[in-house]
Amino acid sequence: MKFGKSICILNVGGTKYAFPRDVIKDFPLQRVSRLHSCASEKEVLEVCDDYDRESNEFFFDRHSEAFVFIMLYVKSGKLRFVPRMCELSFYNEMVYWGLESSHLEYCCQRRLDDRMSDSFTYFSEEDIKPEEDLETVGGGARWLERMRRTFEEPMSSVAAQILASVSVIFVIVSMVILCASTLPDWDSAKNNSVAEHRIIEAVCIGWFTAECIVRFLVSRDKCEFLRRPLNVIDLLAIAPYYASALAAAVTGESSQLQRAGVTLRALRMMRIFWLIKLARHFLGLQSLGLTLRRCYREMVMLLVFVGVAMAIFGALAQLLEHGLDLVPSSEDYASIPAACWWVIISMTTVGYGDMYPITMPGRMLGGLCVVSGIVLLALPITFIYHSFVQCYHELRLRSARYHRSLSTEFLN
User: Fold this and answer.
1) Which ranges does the record mark as transmembrane (predicted)?
2) Less Cβ crowding at N or C end of the chain, within 10 Å?
């Protein structure tokens, strides 16, 4: 430092600290040590908030209590959080003075990681894209983009909400008809009102077909649209109606149509997956889908745990209940696959009661199987639960942003 006195005073939030100039040069805090290399008062003001030449005092408008704990780190080498202070606020103070999260004690690092993961907000590429893009594109492209958002983002506008509500009504009506068609009295009722049922089904299929076609035409990437699972389900659920209508028109009630009836009925049942379309309108289903997508590693870990436990306990159960020829013995455990069914319903604490061990060693193994299942299932589920809470908060934040834009649109 080429100016000032030999004693430097740091005024942090009203609390003063005096240091010799040589100490400032090798000070552990990067922002403080930068003062030594400043050649002019202008450069000093780039490091601190204010400077008094007469007293050689440097002013920093920062949290004074946080700096006390940072100075304790300079003296003792241990950095911990300030009690009753937000971890993120203290971390901002650390970054300002030139410290990193690795300087924290291990327990405080974990607290900071948890706090940052809770505050992390996920945005897709479409969310990051600014709204002003609509104003910079041409008229035709702007209209296509608005149509795409209307069909793909139910909360993007009032028209999108109305369209989404109509789509939900058609999904519910279609599901009610699909479920009712499996009732024993449905055939007699259908014979009495064939025209009404056909009209309702045709209207629902027509709506879903029109919606699917429009969404395909206004999509940005046609190949990506066809690769999306929900769109594939839409196509597979719509196709049986047209396939059966075409087959009936060409061949009538022939044997070929009868043989294809099983396949068509199986594909027709895929309409039940239209309920997944409701995820576009409900935060709970969206949170579930986002959680499963992010926690696929934990899900694989859960399946591995269950698979290993099924193999071990299934083999032991078959051996104790049937393989050793003990008296009494159970024929329900004649094979390891049969015993694995008992293992899975025991580990999940369902216990249908269709099969159970009858020997004393088998019952001891059953108790161990139940306890092990509780522990093994609880371990990865904890991570999945925290991820679900995080995803729910993120989607609520996104929904609140859409509601603000809707309020502005309604007022305008």
Assistant:
1) 158-178, 198-218, 299-320, 332-353, 365-388
2) C
